[in-house]
Protein 1
Amino acid sequence: DGMEEVSRGNVLAQEYWRRGMFKEAEEVFLKLANLAKDDAKSYFNVGLAKYAQGDMAGAISWLEKALKLPGSDEHHSVYHHQMGSAYCRLAERQNDGLL
């Protein structure tokens, strides 16, 4: 069952996240986003994992995708807040000459 697989995947990804294994969490979140293409939360989680790894451009891309999906309204402000944070970190890196 697809929903059961998504549920198990979320548990695994959250365990990776708790252990600071953000790349592994991202891989699971990517699989979940591919399974549930209309689930804004899955896209948001990929964006968070990218953010945690320092990939601000990737985070912004996935967060923008999450905002365009139906069902994102419930967490709209959280998604925008995280995207704003990613834009700020990206600008800081550009100003520091890290990009």
Protein 2
Amino acid sequence: MSPHQSLYAKSFCKYLHLYMCKCIFSPPSIPHTSSHHNLLPLCFPSFYHVVPQYVLAVGSNVFHAMFYGELAEDKEEIRIPDVEPPSFLAMLKYIYCDEIDLCADTVLATLYAAKKYIVPHLARACVNFLETSLSAKNACVLLSQSCLFEEPDLTLRCWEVIDAQAELALRSEGFTDIDSVTLESILRRETLNAKEMVVFEAALSWAEAECQRQDLTPTIENKRLALGKAIYLIRIPTMTLDDFANSAAQSGVLTLNETNDIFLWYTAAKKPELLFASKLRKGLAPQRCHRFQSCAYRSNQWRYRGRCDSIQFAVDKRVFIAGFGLYGSSCGSAEYNAKIELKRQGVPLGQSLIKYFSDGSSSTLPVWFEYPVQIEPDTFYTASVVLDGNELSYFGQEGMTEVQCGKVTFQFQCSSDSTNGTGVQGGQIPELIFYA
């Protein structure tokens, strides 16, 4: 580049910093020189930016072909009609400044730009950003986008979240925004960890949104029309009879014949043939991380008076904590009231109030959160339980600071929240129940 072009490139890089911080909204002026052939206007629908052409070509094979390839045309400007300016500017900032500046609002559009103009390192950074920000709220939308962008690793990560937190994902606002192909792939999913009534209600919510997208009044008939054959992917016969009678049967979406046949499916010895899938979903098999090598009981130990038993843990890959395994009474059958909680840096992520019964054996007893809690790698979380019961219980001993469970490594450390004696070496919360 000439000194003038180099000066402009530096000015442009500084401008990108300011623009993306929303400090200014106009590009720097073209330097006064008689040779501007390497300074190229990029025209967006609402405004334009002037950029140094040579560096743009070095950063993108597509731009290189446009400017210097065999079929290159001598254009006075390049129109960018299909990429939003903030996302395109994020790509320019990477090309010119070698800086990656992504945010949740524009990362998908930036990924589109990086894919279109073949900027692979930026595209990979976008995918990593999306994987890191994955949650039940956005997993369905990102599943749809990952298939569109042909990103199989991101698709796999999306499925992990959707399977483990299926009910949260299906009830998210993003679920109603997906396309029909993605809807069918989710309804067909064997490992969805959700009640079928939740699947049915989510499908109706999607159908209502689809009616609005097609400018149709969301009547019962139009919802059924929007769902099409996808409705038969809902495994209605696997609902409990109460769920079917109080939900699907009264929705109006099923025909009278379909409703009658499904009732017969539940009650008749000779069951009718149904178009609906009737095999129960497998769901996910919960795994258990057991942190003690043995358990014991002694007189006057382990007693509960509403004090907190707590332990901190971290994992090396994303998992979903579904509940805890707890010890029960060492003095015969007994009942306990339990409040279980998961926190990250003092912020509650999941809580549940549970009553459970112990038969006097040393077996652990599972207690569950309402929804599995997403746990990110390399961060310590606090697992706590407050028990209320009159009987002494078993307690763990010979605790381990690190436990390998399949492909997941758990690390444990003591928690300052623990006021009843539980720690790494011994105490309560012998098991973490999780999906991975």
Protein 3
Amino acid sequence: YRHSSEKEEVISLKLSHLDFALLSLLVSANLVGTLIGVIYYMSQLLSTSPLLWVFVPDCPLYTGLFAFLILLAIAGVKSDLFGFLVSVGLMKYGAWTLFVLAFYSNYFFSFATYIWLQSTILFILHIGMMLEGFILPFKKVTALQMVVVLAWFFINDFLDYFGPSVHPYLPQGNPLPATAFALLSTFAFTLLAAGFAKNNYRIHIRGLS
């Protein structure tokens, strides 16, 4: 019996190390992605009022917040509202990027220039970003939290498409599809994340969920 107990303790310790390694990998990958994203947005940031900077680099913002969220979880600090907001942001902007790359594929995947290679890498990375949203590092969602998250992302959408237009570069053409997708995704991913949390559908990683 003692031998069995010691074996279980060793297995538990190994799992703990694996969990920590996975969380460390997620933090590192997201911080690198955030840095690359900020560099990508640098010219747009420099031409935008500092008061609006938080609304410009959408994807880097939420990958950075996700890394911060993991560090907080490792330290034993968790917030359902913060986790909910970050999860929706990862899903929304990951999906929006995939949509834009696909919808404007004649531009982004043109073999006339090497932009197709960059676009292919971005497409793969943003699939990963969107999937990170389904880790759902929160337990429950209240009605007030849903209102706060919806309001935050609708403010983002307004500034992107109806205000100072701080959205990422879109090829010449009709911006309506990207606008419509952004607005619909705010509703869809807020409801999806809340529904998944309610039914406990999530990617489980010990230390986060």
